[in-house]
Design brief:
heterodimer, A: about 375 residues, alpha/beta, 3 domains, 6-stranded mixed sheet, 4-stranded antiparallel sheet, globular, disordered C terminus, B: about 475 residues, mainly alpha, two-stranded antiparallel sheet
């Protein structure tokens, strides 16, 4: 299916996506693509804005800036940021699961999967009127929907419990049911928010199997957020790493795994190393800027939150020991980034557009 | 109950000893509590002086009753309960086959309802059956229908609606106004009243779509009051609080009429004796048919995608949206469908009374309908019908308890205790069955076997 034009190779293209909550920048100028038929993983430390990206893609948030394009297999394109919430699953065929499981706990497993086929059944029941009078067209559609539900219950290994309430299931089974429910909507892109959270290794392995099965047999592309690296590294074809709402790495699992920025973001940098990095950064440009502009480093940089504007500000301004302490809470990845780039001494840094810098300077960044 | 016994003493004392001790404690507490309440009473004598009446005898009786009651409870009732519980725990966990009555509850219920007027006529004669068919049968069935209509909004969709009586009023006034001014028949106005109520349901639905839980409840309550105040103040149309009288009777599908003066009066057509009971019996079957219609539509809708979407909405609105369900239209259809049945019931009410006024549509009515839904178990039709029978039939039967005057003196009017008993009954039922008479939920589809879903898994909805 990838033999089409290159535009249609990507099922999802996120371009310059920003999401601001008041002064808080949860996502800043994020761009990435997800290929059709692949599993794309979105990883990053806690609070990096991964779930916010998901909420933007699935319409729960309206992004402040940017464009999210979804290309369906039939060639039609949808701008997800413009579609109403419920039309994203219905028309653009994007389904999602939630970090904290959201099942219809008082309904049986089967009913959960039937609710997922709402739009299809609604049409078959003539928007209730034909179904109310017992027309056979609805009965047939209803039987088909039960078959589909049964198919996914079998895939999720839950068919024995089909008639039990969803709230009665153990945690791992609830996760699988939520995926099965999302698949019953017939999605082209399946967004999974931490599907392996709270699973034991055995359950995690069976989840991998289920996801690989979905990818191989339905052609559904998967976008997943995950902290469990065993899941990410084993099944994903492409990994995007976020930190503080910005993309710090993008590529195959192997390349991401060895990326110093990713390692820094996850593990942090040694204190001595930070100092070293920052003194290296403190070149003439920065010192000049520091003399004229107000001292921004003490403000947002110390809060260690996403309030901290463009993180590179805090890094660039720091040129002495005292400042180093202040900026330690900010992006570790940016420090590594800066270290790598000092010899090149980019002049665009002074323009205060850090994101533009990162997308141009990064070796494996962005578009192909 | 109030006296807690430490575990060591619990082991030593036999039940009888313990009961004796606890009975003494309870007696002492009762004496302390009641000595001023019951033992002494202030009164006025013939000179308008305040005097103290001493009632030591009555106090002794009450305290004695407490002592004996506590003794019997601790010595016999508690060990008895424990024994039976232990036996039940010891017995193998065989799934209790539901009894014949429970298995065929719906069929038996429908049969009883269909045969009820016939039985009443056979028992009391035409004139004597009037009270039983009208005051009990029709009255209860109206509330059954209203509660089933509200059940769609609250029980299925989980939207707490405290202004449901507004739709009842819309239906009643729609029939009353169109019937008296334009002389249209009940059979045309019944669907018209339903449509109008449904329209107002959507009108209410639009502004409250964004609200949830308590906020939704308050706005719907206000909506109910607005409708009532409009009915009172828009005198040119509604005749204010004087109400509308002379509302035409329902005809037997235009073939026979129930007005004595008409040429096609039912007694003349069929050649039988004149009686007011024919109309009441006809009305009984009419409201019964409307109830069956409501039940049929509710059961059917639950198995259709829209009904499942309502229940899903009650369980989790965000998950609904993530599955592509348009929550706006889903909520509006729930409001409209519930309101439509309220409108049907309203137009029937107007036809039955022959008179409507805003007094019939006060908030208390909404509260009673809501209480019936909650008491019956949200979402279950059978439970709600039983709750309506208990609540409405129970308050009606208070009028029949004339013999209590013998016990409590000639001034005693049991009807006045209606709301008190109502409240006590609700508290007791909610303690005994917090999810209502029928707390479990019937699944709408199944693969292998239909298992009821326990009430502990279902949610009440949050708006």
């Amino acid at each position: 299916m990838n033999a089409q034009v290159s535009m249609n190779d990507f099922i999802l293209q996120v371009e310059h996506l920003s999401m601001k909550f008041g002064g808080l920048i949860a996502i800043g100028d994020l761009s990435f693509q997800a290929k059709r038929g692949e599993i794309t993983a979105l990883i990053g430390p806690n609070g990096a804005g991964k779930t916010t990206v998901f909420n933007c893609i699935t319409g729960f948030y309206k992004p402040s800036e940017g464009m999210i394009t979804l290309s369906r297999r039939d060639g039609s394109n949808y701008l997800l940021e413009r579609l109403p919430n419920h039309e994203i699953p219905a028309r653009a065929k994007v389904a999602r699961t939630f970090q904290n499981i959201r099942l219809f706990s008082g309904m049986t497993l089967l009913e959960n999967l039937l609710v997922a086929q709402h739009n299809k059944l609604m049409k078959a029941s003539g928007y209730t009127f034909l179904g109310l009078f017992g027309f056979s067209s609805y009965r047939q559609a209803s039987a088909e929907s039960i078959d589909l539900a049964k198919h996914w219950l079998e895939k999720a290994n839950l068919v024995d419990r089909a008639d039990d309430p969803a709230g009665d299931l153990p945690y791992g089974a609830q996760r699988r049911l939520e995926i099965a429910r999302a698949m019953c909507t017939g999605p082209e892109l399946l967004c999974l928010d931490e599907p392996a959270a709270g699973l034991n290794p055995k359950e995690s392995a069976s989840l991998n199997e289920l996801l690989m099965d979905i990818k191989d047999n339905t052609g559904t592309s998967i976008l997943l957020i995950e902290h469990d690296m065993s899941v990410v590294m084993q099944i994903s074809d492409h990994v995007v790493v976020l930190e503080y709402g910005r993309k710090i790495s993008d590529g195959s699992p192997q390349s991401v795994r060895t990326d110093p920025r990713v390692i820094a973001a996850y593990l942090g940098v040694d204190d001595e190393e930070v100092e070293e990095v920052l003194t290296e950064v403190g070149d003439e440009d920065v010192i000049e800027q520091l003399d004229t502009g107000p001292d921004a480093a003490h403000g947002p940089g110390s809060s260690a939150s996403m309030m901290a504007g463009p993180v590179s500000d805090t890094v660039e301004h720091a040129d002495e020991g005292e400042r180093v302490m202040v900026s330690r809470g900010a992006s570790k990845a940016a420090q590594v980034d800066a270290k790598a780039k000092t010899p090149r001494k980019s002049s665009e840094r002074a323009t205060g557009k850090p994101a533009a810098k990162s997308s141009t300077a990064k070796p494996r960044g962005g578009r192909k | 109950m109030a006296v807690t016994v430490s575990p060591e003493r619990d082991v030593v004392a036999t039940p009888i000893q313990r009961a004796f001790r606890e009975a003494l404690y309870a007696g002492a507490i009762a004496l302390g509590l009641f000595v001023l309440f019951i033992g002494l009473r202030t009164d006025q004598n013939i000179n308008n002086e305040l005097i103290l009446v001493q009632r030591w005898g009555l106090l002794a009786l009450v305290v004695l009753a407490v002592v004996v009651g506590r003794f019997l409870y601790v010595a016999y009732a508690v060990p008895g309960l424990e024994r039976s519980r232990a036996e039940r725990a010891k017995a193998p966990a065989v799934a209790v086959e539901p009894g014949f009555v429970r298995r065929n509850f719906n069929k038996i219920g429908a049969t009883v309802l269909i045969l009820y007027p016939v039985a009443m006529v056979l028992l009391f004669g035409f004139q004597g059956s009037l009270k039983w068919v009208d005051n009990f049968g029709i009255q209860i069935l109206i509330y059954v229908m209203l509660a089933w209509g509200l059940n769609i909004v609250i029980g299925l969709a989980g939207l707490l609606d405290l202004g449901y009586v507004a739709f009842y009023a819309v239906g009643a006034y729609a029939y009353a106004l169109l019937g008296t001014h334009f002389g249209l028949s009940f059979w045309i106005l019944l669907p018209a009243a339903g449509a109008m109520a449904a329209f107002w349901g959507v009108m209410l639905g639009f502004p409250v779509l964004r609200l949830r839980g308590d906020y939704l409840a308050i706005v719907t309550l206000a909506f109910g009051e607005i409708i009532r105040l409009v009915l009172i103040n828009w005198r040119e149309v509604t005749n204010g609080s004087a109400g509308i009288s002379g509302i035409p009777k329902v005809s037997f599908f235009g073939l026979m009429s129930f007005n004595v003066s008409d040429p096609n009066y039912i007694a003349k057509v069929l050649g039988i004796a004149q009686s007011g009971a024919y109309y009441k019996i006809f009305l009984y079957y009419l409201i019964l048919a409307l109830c069956f219609l409501t039940a049929f539509v509710t059961i059917r809708l639950r198995r259709l995608p829209v009904g499942r979407a309502w229940e899903a909405l009650r369980e989790d609105e965000i998950a609904c949206r993530s599955l592509g369900i348009n929550t706006t239209t889903t909520k509006l259809t729930a409001f409209a469908t519930g309101a439509m049945f309220g409108g049907f019931a309203g137009s029937f009410f107007a036809a039955r009374q022959g008179f409507v006024s805003p007094e019939s549509f006060v908030f208390l009515e909404s509260a009673i309908i809501l209480a019936i839904v909650v008491l019956g178990g949200m979402g279950s039709l059978g439970g709600i019908a039983v709750a309506a029978l208990v609540m409405i039939g129970g308050t009606e039967i208070l009028r029949e308890l004339g013999f209590l005057k013998v016990v409590f003196g000639p001034d005693f009017t049991p009807e006045l205790y209606r709301m008190l008993l109502f409240g006590v009954a609700m508290v007791i039922v909610m303690l005994w069955k917090p999810r209502g008479f029928v707390g479990s939920r019937e699944p709408t589809a199944f693969l292998k076997e239909r298992k009821a879903v326990s009430g502990s898994f279902t949610k009440e909805g949050h708006g």
